[in-house]
Automatic annotation (TrEMBL):
Pfam family, one: adh_short_C2
Coiled coil: none
This protein's name: SDR family oxidoreductase
Alphabetized UniProt keyword annotations: Oxidoreductase
InterPro entries linked: KR_dom, NAD(P)-bd_dom_sf, SDR_DHRS6-like, SDR_fam
Domain Ketoreductase, chain residue ranges per copy: 35-214
Regions that span the bilayer: none
Record organism: Sphingomonas ginsenosidivorax
Record's keyword annotation contains Oxidoreductase: yes
Keyword Oxidoreductase set for record: yes
Domain of life of the organism encoding this protein: Bacteria
Family recorded in the similarity comment: Belongs to the short-chain dehydrogenases/reductases (SDR) family.
Annotated region described as Disordered, given as residue ranges: 1-21
Length: 268
């Protein structure tokens, strides 16, 4: 039976009372001033760039990831904007709940956490597969469950998937699987957690930590090869992704969807 439009909009009346002016139409200017944002993966790459860009727009950020050193290094660049740093594994539901409880409810919760292994499908070890499922499957599930309590009604939850969801190739089998799963999860949660918004950003190849296991020469050659095949003629920078993340947080009408920030990689 088709789902009726009216049943989909049950609960919309709550939104009238709880959604801030800043996220209702307009240009989003100032929407992040004073907003509290919890970022898992803030110790490096895109997560770190989101923390930095959000802080520059007046947000208060909480930084999470497994490595205390990396979080402290990020925090050192953001004086005054840091609510707290949380050395945690996003796989651990209790750790996630405890961290969010300290300064929650948050206006936005973001995860870029990824512990990925690229390599032939038949050669992947159980531990490597578990690491991928832990960071990009169980992590978002734990955050989705925590969002019920620790995310403000007008807030948003943002996951990061990736181009491998659509453009599978040798070595990215499980990476693609976890990425595409996130997109389905976000759609479901946008309905179940309403009026909280839930979205996904799907990056293309970005010069960031995901490629840190490559040697420098190999990485340079890889980026040049990818750039040559993209309409924009370059690989992404972490700021490209962070800018999109802020736009998704600022715009209260982006919901239940995937924003592809990939330089045209999906269509090239
Ligand atoms: N860079 C790209 O080209 C690209 C392409 C497509 C998609 N993406 C996606 O975009 C996101 C950001 O990519 P990136 O290159 O910025 O990645 P990154 O630099 O490797 O950052 C990932 C962060 O996640 C944290 N992390 C990993 N496992 C965790 C866990 N179990 N619990 C908590 N934190 C964990 C890592 O810190 P600790 O090790 O300290 O925990 C790290 O700071 C990822 O989801 C990635 O899959 C990136």
């Amino acid at each position: 039976m088709p789902i009726s439009v009216s049943s989909r909009w049950n609960g919309a009346s709550n939104m009238t009372n709880t959604t801030s002016q800043a996220t209702r139409g307009g240009d989003g200017l100032g929407a992040l001033i004073g907003a509290k944002i919890f970022i898992v993966g803030a110790g490096s790459g895109v997560g770190r760039a989101i923390a930095s860009m959000a802080a520059a727009r007046g947000a208060k950020v909480a930084l999470a990831g497994r490595s205390r050193d990396k979080l402290d290094a990020t925090a050192a660049t953001l004086s005054g904007a840091v609510l707290g740093t949380y050395a945690l594994d996003v796989t651990d539901r209790a750790q996630v709940e405890a961290a969010l409880a300290e300064h929650g409810p948050y206006d936005h919760i973001v995860t870029t956490a990824a512990d990925l292994t690229f390599g032939p499908f038949t050669g992947l070890t159980d531990a490597q597969i578990e690491g991928m499922l832990a960071s990009k499957f169980w992590g978002p599930i734990n955050l989705g469950r925590a969002a019920d309590k620790h995310l403000a009604p007008q807030g948003s939850l943002l996951f990061f998937s990736g181009l491998a969801a659509y453009r599978q190739g040798p070595g990215s089998s499980i990476v693609g699987v976890v990425n595409i799963a996130l997109e389905s999860l976000a759609a479901a949660l946008a309905i179940e957690l309403k009026p909280k918004r839930v979205n996904v950003i799907s990056p293309g190849v970005v010069d960031a930590g995901s490629w840190s296991s490559m040697g420098e020469d190999e990485r340079t050659a890889f980026f040049a090869d990818v750039a040559g095949g993209l309409p924009v003629g370059r690989v992404g920078e972490v700021e490209d992704e962070a800018h999109a993340a802020l736009a998704v947080m600022e715009n209260g009408f982006i919901n239940g969807t995937v924003v592809n920030v990939d330089g045209g990689g999906r269509v090239a």
